[in-house]
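Listing 4. Sequential folding, example run.
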Amino acid sequence: MIINDRHQVIFIHIPKCAGTTVRLKLQPFDEARGKFFPLREHPQLGLINYGHIPLFILREFFLEDYKKVGTYETYALIRDPISRFASSFSQHQNDYGLAPLHRLKPTDIYKQLNAIIGVLQKYSSEESYLPHQYIHFQRQTDYIFDEGMRLVRHVYDVTDISGLLAHVGAHLKA
């Protein structure tokens, strides 16, 4: 997440939705100074990926930042769920799997998919926060909605990164 208090702009980084590309462009404007980036220990949550914090976790553990989401101009990118799942699976394999996806036999891919689906089923209730190894599978809606309300005002499809950056850029220049 990128927070710019001066211009009251926030970019919410949804996993596997080109957020790293946007974060790198907006990093010079991040007045949170990287608070919401890398993987590190949280006192109550344990090891978490600070770059991918869903809104319900933000509300519970980062209340001041959560309040900003409700008042600032907020932006996020979303992606087709099927292609996002495939990308999440590939990254999970690269980071935590037996081998990179391209080196697995079809039977091993099937076993890995079933194992991941089994984990995801255990976390299928509302406000289920996935362990850091599975954060790329966290529901996109968890980053846009909270308690039934849409909090992120400007949601762009991943195919329109330039549109998002133009809109954010206009706010940062104001």
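-- end of first protein; second protein begins --
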Amino acid sequence: EVIKEKNEILDEISKSDELTQIYNRRGFQTMVQRKISHAANKGKKAFVMYADMNNLKIINDRFGHEEGDYSLKLIADILKEALDKDSIVGRFGGDEFVAFTYAADDITARSIRKDITEITRRKNEGNGKPYYVSMSVGICEFECGRDVDMDDLMDKADVDLYNEKKHKRSNVLKNENEAI
């Protein structure tokens, strides 16, 4: 019984990101694959998202790695807040994040982006930091089923992400008079 409990704890640890307290790559892929291939979800519309934090290197170099860590945690919080409780949010590593959510009647890729933008704006206004935390987000809509290829979905979301990156915030500093 003790060994079983310890193995369950180790399994959970191996699936979570220590810094952000969300799933890591392995945990995210395991949980999402389970949901999209479950028979009860066949045909259900869903979204997979690929998010990339903007300007992490500048924040780390200018303000220190503690501020970079703060920024990564904030990105995780923004994604969790923007999506419903049944969603899955993960950190693939570095400044890359992923998310999965079911598509309710009122949820579209556009509404998800709008929510992320609004929450990001609000958090930046209230955090007292001299820099903006922001992300670019790529979204892929699909229907759940056993034959869905997670890698293909992530590739499509990644293409959308890089199209969105073209519109990213150019200045990381809130006081634009400061030079980077």
